[in-house]
Amino acid sequence: MAGISWHYVLKFIITGDAAVGKSSLLVRLTDQRFLANPDPTLGVEFGSKLITIPEENKIVKLQCWDTAGTESFRSITRSYYRGAAGCLLVYDVTSRQSFQNARSWLADVRAHADPHLTCILVGNKVDLCTDDAARRQVSTEEAELWAQEEGLLFVEASAKSGVNVEDAFERACRDILEKIRKGVFDDDRSPGVKLSKPANSSLALDQAKGGSGQCCGT
Amino acid sequence: MEFLSQTYVALRGPTGAPQTPLETVTRLSDRLSPATLLADRRAAVLSLKGIARSHKQIVGEHALPGLLDIIQNDAEVDPDIGRAALECVHTLCDTLDTQYNLRDLGFVHTDRILENERTIHKLLALLADQDYHIRQCSCVLLTTILHNRAQQAQVYFLKAPVGPGPVVALLEESGDVITRDALRLLAALIRQSTEIQKILAFDGVFEKLFNIVTREGGLDAREHVEDALKCVDTLLRFNTSNQSYLRETGLPSLLCSLLYFNPNVQPDEGVPQEFALQFWNDSKTKCAALVLEAIGMLLGSKGTGLREGYAFTRLLIEMALASNAPTRLKVQCLRLLPANAAAMLPDMILTPYMPVPETNGEEWDRLEAATGIDALLELIMHGEYNGLDATRRFKEGMDLRGTAVAVFENFLREDRVKEAIVSGMLPPENSGLHARSPVTPLLFGLILPPSSPLDRANVVSFQFAAVLFAHLIRHAPQCKALARAIMPPSLAPMPPSGAAPSGGAFFVPADGGQAPPAEAEPEDQDEPQTLLQLLTEHLSLSFLSRSRAGLSEREQRECDRVICSYLSLLSQWLWEDPKAVREFLEAGGLGVLVEQLNQPSEVDVVIPGLCAFVLGLCYEFNREPGEITRETIHPILTRLGVDVLVGRMNRVRDDERIKVVGPDFWVLPCPTPQALNPTFIPMYENETEVWFDWAFVDFWKSNNYTVQRGLVADPNSASSSTVQSGEESVLVASLRDIIAKQAAEIEALQAKLKELSASSSTAAAVTTSSFDEERKALEASLEAERTKRSEVEKEQEDLLVLLDELSSKRARDKAAMREKGMDVSEDEGDDDEEEEE
User: Fold this and answer.
1) Residue A203 domain flag
2) ipTM at complex level
3) A204 lies in some domain
4) Which residues from chain B sit within 8 angstroms of residue A29, using beta carbons?
5) CA pair distance B580, B359, nearest whole angstrom
6) CB contact under 8 A, A203 and B257
7) Nearest by CB to A213, which of B159, B164, B274?
8) What are the pLDDT digits (tens) for B175-187?
9) Cross-chain CB nearest to B245 (options A46, A208, A211)
10) Is A150 part of a structural domain of the chain?
11) Deepest in the core among A77, A106, B493, B533, taking most CB within 10 A?
């Protein structure tokens, strides 16, 4: 291995109503582009990203599983909550309904996930409100209040303009690292947090050195 | 003992009278109810288990719900009863019975278990049970249920409250039995379910699987490694999400390490012998094949920046061209190599190895280092290990060479590469008339004269050389032009039996009699022959040796193969190249073809068909002035019969050797077609053979019809590169139309422009001149006016003078009159005059 490329691997899930922009957020994070007309996600899709947290001097590998918001996949996506260290609970600031449904998504997460999971509430699509304030259906204050009540982090973001997207993931990461520092997770206790183990992959190579020298002629 | 006696009592019944199985089972089933004591229930379950196999239907009918209840309620409390119940249900669901109706019963029982999700969820929970046997038995039962009714069971699995955790945890357990069972369960679980594959990847199944592989000691291990790698394969194949997950982890470098390859290898670094020379056995080969497949999938997966990308590509090339890996692995390496990787070959330095003879593959010689592209060409031309086993033509060896050709084809993607290679085969410039081309391996293989008897290894080398050369010149006019200037050096003396038939003369035996005896003509060594001429000559030689009496069936087949290669290469060269056609015809090609068409073999359809194809092609593209014109060929075609020729061409299409060839399948089992020579026995077992490659078959299929249409055309008809298949010609015609229209338009516009510019200039000229005139006129009139005015002024002056004179005279007269005393009017003018004076 060429040095340690990251210190922690954190598993994230992105959840929330259909069409609030979960896949777009992930693609914005991983590819720095805007997914204009995505197809609805079927089941779950994977994406990942390295994030540096300068204060902690740590590099974190985010493994994100982007889940389907459609109801028919809900039982499948539930299986992912258990193993996650962080969760992005996404709603659409121009859709009151998606904000209200966030309560049921949160209930789902609380029911299945690790109690120490870090959850950040993300109000997506703020770009639509900058020009046309009338489109906003969920005010920042209201969402912030609810996040406080529930003990969630909160940010408003836009996958289209990219504003606050990385910030959302970073804040969640910081919170998890904070928990790790405080010893909330006992080493590997949370399935969503892994220390990187560089020794793992050099094992076979060492064996190779002893293995097959004899068969070589001149 | 107590259990046995209880069972006995149960079976015997209270009265001692003989019991039917039904009665026994009913009685035992009754005892399964929770009301019964645990010990009694346990005894009943054990009894049922004992008779489940022999009375599967009855037990299933009466006891299954009770047994499922016991699994649900008692298994965690009492491992013994749990284990017995699990085993008993497993027997009921077993579908591996030899009897057909019993097999069906297994499915019926599975369906009853799957009526609701209860049992599946319980079994998943039991996978994490404290008791080893409970875990193991649940695992086995789940596997069986999944085998019987995968879809329904998978749906329940996805909704299980315990989640996939227990399955993954099971893979961590050490112990041969549980590892084996866990891997089987995993394999059954992930089959054809992308969602389960993803959720398991989320729960770290890849890590666990590779842990098993390393724990067991890598690819050399005997146990579990193959099963684990098979699961990895299933998890990755057709699952892009998992592919992108895996490529982000540290595991891809482990794939390299498993094959003893350094995942951080740099381009200027060599590859250690531990990788190049390994001990191989059957099971290791299977495992390595799975590792290679995984590497191929990661290389092909979407997304950029795979850290191991270079190492993977390098590994595939090194293993294929410079290792002692089994041949089928090498084939796989070349097949998995991404198309763009071929461009790396010229810059890569490899060290190939050769087995030391008589050491049974235990000692290896290191050969001189060579570039990747040289090693590839060497492999194609001579076969693995420099043609060590080339005469055997065993399947893997031939496949390897065939796949290498595909890599070479990728290398030739750009026309400039083709041109550079063909240019390299030209004689050095400015070295006089007798300059000859340098002998490259490709050229050497191409110009090797057909010996007699044919050498088995050389035949294949020639076939591959012909295929490679065809790749270089097909549809590349520039390369064809260059290739015409290749002057092959003379190699060995001519084969003793064959002699070149006289060059330009084409003898057509009209009576269909025997071929004329070849006139031996001394080879003029001073006259350099072009490659095309040489190939024509060799074609004729091959026909000659084919017609010799006393050839064995095997030898005839060799000859046919060589002839087919000549014809396919020539047809691709002559296509759309009138200059080459002329050279071919004047080198005696026409005679050779016509002779064959005059007395075709009744058995084989391919060679006469191809001869007709090449003849038609020559007629079609014979557009250069020369000795043999279209007018010369036309009567020959008429005599042979155009319909006959077309018929011959069409029969080729149905031949197996053309019909079964696909883009990556052209190494055929020997003999193909089987029906042609029912008595034919190949020299070696599992021998394979090559006839045509896909590129030629594709070429032939798309141009066959054009050639047929060209055959009926009048010799004076216009050049018919327009004779194309319907759609194409329509397209070309419409494009031509457009071009013509546009040209006409441009012309018209230009004319108009000219006209306009001309007229505008004349108009300008006209106006300026008229202006000029006007100006002149004006000037003139101005001048006239001026003179007039000056005249008038002068006149006026004169008049003034006159007036002055008059007035002075008048004054004098007045004075005179006054003096004379006459009354004279006083006028001011006078005063004025006077004052003035």
Assistant:
1) no
2) 0.78
3) no
4) none
5) 51
6) yes
7) B274
8) 889 999 999 999 9
9) A46
10) yes
11) A77
